[in-house]
Design goal:
Blueprint lengths: L5 E6 L1 H6 E11 L3 H8 L3 E2 L4 E5 L2 E5 L2 E2 L16 E4 L2 H14 L2 E10 L2 E11 L2 H26 L1
Antiparallel strand pairs: 1-8, 2-7, 2-9, 3-6, 4-5, 5-7, 8-9
């Protein structure tokens, strides 16, 4: 997760349900002015987004940034492909891992670090159906336990 002096804007909770996060890293993202203003207003969705490596560059796809209300002609396509900023050496390492081991690159969160917009990118392995069921059962058991503790402390 992002460190101190950050403000989280959007999280991809579905990614944690659908994938095992093996490794996470921070990247910058290339945006235009009205997109940054929309992000400041929290008008961004990472739910069905993913990353791909094309021609040695890292791109985020499927991320929706709503048009800025006062942006008029300066607004861009909300679903446009955006470039992520990372060193070539790191991109090539990720490319090799994704191709060889069958991992996916999934954006986990979008946040401000100072005045810069950053993306927490996860190197992820897809979960099987039984893994998802196991996680849901554990989450339900934890929720029931917390509920019981709360009821006991009231009574």
């Amino acid at each position: 997760m992002p460190k101190e002096n950050t403000k989280t804007i959007a999280q991809n909770k579905k990614a944690f349900h659908d994938y095992f996060v093996i490794e996470s890293m921070e990247t910058g993202i290339e945006l235009c002015g009205t997109e940054v203003k929309s992000i400041r207003n929290g008008r961004v969705n990472l739910k069905d987004s993913w990353c791909s490596i094309d021609d040695g560059e890292l791109y985020i796809k499927g991320m929706h940034i709503s048009p800025y209300e006062q942006g008029n002609i300066f607004n861009r396509d909300p679903m446009r492909v955006r470039r992520l900023l990372m060193h070539k050496r790191e991109i090539m390492r990720l490319f090799g891992t994704v191709k060889q081991d069958g991992y996916s690159l999934i954006p986990l969160s979008l946040y401000f670090k100072g005045s810069k917009v950053k993306v927490q990118l996860g190197l992820c392995k897809g979960k099987k159906l039984y893994d998802k069921r196991e996680d849901m059962a554990a989450r339900d058991a934890k929720r029931d336990m917390q509920r019981a503790i709360k009821e006991r402390s009231r009574g």
